[in-house]
Specification:
The protein is an alpha+beta fold and about 250 residues long. It has helices spanning about 35-40, 45-55, 90-95, 120-130, 145-155, 155-160, 165-170, 190-195, 220-225, 240-250, and strands at about 1-5, 5, 10, 15-20, 30, 60-70, 75-85, 100-110, 210-215, 230-240.
């Protein structure tokens, strides 16, 4: 099979390999399905980006792409590469322009059965209250530059102070939701302006908000420590710092 002019060899139903060619240092491997290749990977050049990453100095074993693969900045979005500590490189496009972009699982005290028959309304409410898409805005009032600087300095504590969470949320967040070295004074006015009306928005690309259920517990001890149980209703959210984070990265490159 081919995509974007590159040969794809099937390892199994959900793993495909771009074999070594030219000056590639490692093969490329893409976690996806036959249907996804036909429907999506023929339309952009993300496979070419997987190949490009395979040329980087110090790359180890494979140039990888996860199932959310699509065209990115140098690296494909969903791209993963391990680099040798001495000969490897750090790529802003690989780490991501969207600073602090990531995925979080939010647990609830509900069982999936508790919302049976209410899912349609729940989804409608989420679509209405959580702005999504390119350039989305308006989830929270347009913030002043000084408020944006407080967010940059205080992190998740700002959200708690403004009624968007509670103290226990900070306890379950890495670094308590704030990097102590944060210095908003090194952030440009352009970046601050871009972030003023984007707080609380989801964004686009591979960002998502999903209502999910714990279908099966594989390690009861670890699940218990995280407060997770079978049949539990959870929420998974993938977002980042939107235009503000992108602008900060762009300013320094």
């Amino acid at each position: 099979m081919h995509a974007s002019g590159f040969e794809l060899n099937k390892i199994h139903d959900y793993l495909w390999e771009v074999p070594l060619q030219g000056k590639m240092k490692v093969p490329g491997r893409i976690y996806t399905s036959h249907q996804m290749i036909e429907k999506h990977l023929q339309e952009d050049e993300s496979v070419k980006q997987v190949v490009n990453v395979a040329h980087l100095p110090g790359i180890q074993k494979y140039s990888l792409a996860m199932p959310d693969i699509h065209w990115g900045y140098g690296f494909p979005i969903g791209g993963v590469a391990a680099m040798d500590i001495d000969e490897g490189v750090i790529s802003p496009g690989g780490v991501g322009y969207d600073i602090n972009c990531g995925v979080r699982l939010i647990r609830t005290n509900l069982k999936a059965s508790d919302i049976r028959g209410r899912m349609k309304k729940l989804i409608e409410d989420l679509f209405r209250t959580v702005p999504t898409g390119v350039g989305s805005s308006g989830a929270i009032r347009k913030l002043s530059p000084s408020e944006i600087k407080k967010i940059l300095k205080n992190g998740a504590a700002w959200a708690v102070e403004n009624g968007f969470g509670d103290q226990t949320d900070l306890e379950y967040t890495e670094e308590n939701g704030c990097m102590k070295q944060a210095d908003p004074d090194v952030v440009s006015q352009r970046a601050i302006e871009r972030g003023r009306d984007q707080a609380g928005t989801l964004g686009s690309g591979n960002h998502f908000l999903e209502v999910q259920m714990v279908d099966e517990v594989y390690d009861a001890d670890i699940a218990g420590k995280f407060g997770l149980f079978e049949g539990q209703l959870t929420i998974t959210i993938h977002t980042g710092s939107r235009g503000l984070g992108y602008q900060v990265c762009d300013d320094y490159l």
